[in-house]
Design brief:
single chain, about 220 residues, alpha/beta, Rossmann fold, six-stranded mixed sheet, four-stranded antiparallel sheet, 7 helices, 10 strands
Amino acid sequence: MIRLVDLVKIYEIGDVKVQALDHINLNIEAGEMVSIMGPSGSGKSTMMNILGCLDRPSSGKYILDGIDVSSMTDNQLANIRNKKIGFVFQSFNLLPRLNAILNVELPLIYIETKNRRTRAMKALELVGIAQRAGHKPSEMSGGEQQRVAIARALVNNPALILADEPTGNLDTHTSQSIMSFLQELNQKGITIVIVTHEEDIANYTKRTVYLRDGIIVQEKTR
């Protein structure tokens, strides 16, 4: 599903060059559930942005589902994101003025698709929150909002879900519930990559990749 080959990312800040990723080589198989851990500044966010086709590497290759996306145009990358990737964020990123079902429909607006409402409702049913379809984010708990965000990530039937600190704003019980649900999705064949700084969250995944200073320093398989 994912293959990073000698991947480098350098940011230029004025006259200073910062190497965020330093010759990364990593394979993630289809159907895996993998976590990425590391201290602040280790390159986790940079890697997630590249995996999500939100940024490009400075050099090296990123092969996603057999396609080299390393040097694609912005429009090509947007098309890949819409068709293959679902995103889940720590802050949920729901639009406050829209109810749950309209938030879930949003990714479908950017591609030509029929039956948006039906697909959005099925996604809400899948995450067990269809009864809150007409409620706005302010009328839902943090766990309910994150389930809506997961439904939004699933509505395009992605092959890959990228979750950036998906439990960061949730209490322990709700975090456990969300992680158990992500495991269930993984068991259905969806590849899931999670960025987290919490070891107990990483323990839900089958493999953890540890980054430091833009380098993979360790991998742990469970």
